[in-house]
Amino acid sequence: MAEADSGRCLSALLSGICQSSFYRQREVTDTRLREQLYPDMAHEEFTALCGRMRGVLKSMASADMDQAQLEAFLTAQTRKQGGGGLSADQAATLSRFWKSQRSRVRESLLAGSRSEPGLRGVSWRVDVQTAARGGDAPHGGPVALMELELGGAGQDSEFLCLELDEATVGQVLTKMADIQESIDRIVHRT
């Protein structure tokens, strides 16, 4: 295979790996990539190449490598002895590919890490109930009414309404304080 063809095929393989691994396009499979890009390559050889490139891309993506980090990483990969390293041509192709795809991969990873649906807004007020729900007996205690607005990207909002008595509000505040303490411990540990 000519050097230019080899670079184009590797770039297409990297694109396919990104589509299946990062962009969640399940129709892009290793079998399909082999059939379209490397039909003459032995199955075991393709599996090894695909696995190596997938591992390199995942390392680059998880570290969100900038250009300096990328060059150091690729240099180390080309110096590896044995079958686990990269050729200089592969490293150059990876470098060009990462320059063009880094921001897209990062956005895809960030979008995949967000919880859906997300909290869009909270409104609340405190009322005093004048009658119990089931009957006419006066309650007289304060009640917190909370409305949570939930929704995913491109979706209409859904609303969740909560009615909390004084004891439940105290429990919620205690739990929130525990969560804050846990977050503070983790943040200050690093």
UniProtKB/TrEMBL annotation:
The protein, known as: COMM domain-containing protein 1
Pfam short name (any one): COMM_domain
PANTHER family to which the protein is assigned, alphabetical: COMM DOMAIN-CONTAINING PROTEIN 1
Classification via CDD domains: Commd1_MURR1
Name of the gene: commd1
Residue ranges annotated for the COMM domain, each copy included: 118-187
UniProt similarity note: Belongs to the COMM domain-containing protein 1 family.
Any single GO BP term: copper ion homeostasis
Stored InterPro entries: COMM, COMMD1_N, Murr1
Superkingdom to which the source organism belongs: Eukaryota
One GO term describing the cellular component: endosome
